[in-house]
Amino acid sequence: MVISVMQAVLLVARAELLDEVQMDALNQYSNLDSPKKPTLFFEFNGKQRCVEEQS
Predict the structure, then answer these.
(1) Taking the model in full, what pTM does it have?
(2) Is the pLDDT score of 50 beyond 80?
(3) What percent of the chain has a predicted confidence (pLDDT) above 70?
(4) Could you tell me the residue ranges of all domains in the chain?
(5) Contact 40, 20 (CB under 8 A)
(6) Sign, CA torsion 15/33/25/37
(7) What is the pLDDT, as a whole number, of residue 2?
(8) CA of residue 2 relative to chain centroid, distance
(9) Half-sphere exposure of 20 (CA within 13 A, CB side)
(10) How many CA atoms lie within 13 A of 52 on its CB side?
């Protein structure tokens, strides 16, 4: 998945994989209710205008 995203025209700044324990900690710290399962997060670079156009 990470390779596919990076091969696209998207400017990826960071990719981070959290496991179940880290997701539980994130939920507790940020008062969220995300599923407690491995989750892949991406952070993208780009101009705000470009990001809004893709939404």
Answers:
(1) 0.68
(2) no
(3) 87
(4) 2-54
(5) no
(6) negative
(7) 75
(8) 10
(9) 2
(10) 3
How many angstroms separate the CA atoms of 22 and 5, rounded? 23
Beta strand segments in 1-55, E: 11-18, 39-45
Do 46 and 14 meet the contact criterion of CB atoms below 8 Å apart? no
Buried b / exposed e across 3-27, counting CB within 10 Å, b at 16+?
eeeeeeeeeeeeeeebeeeebeeee
Spatial distance between the Cα atoms of 33 and 25, rounded to a whole number of angstroms: 11
The predicted pLDDT at position 27 comes to 97
Q: Which residue has the tokens 């008062």?
A: 31
Rounded CA-CA distance 46/52 in Å is: 10
Residue 40 near residue 17, CB atoms below 8 Å = yes
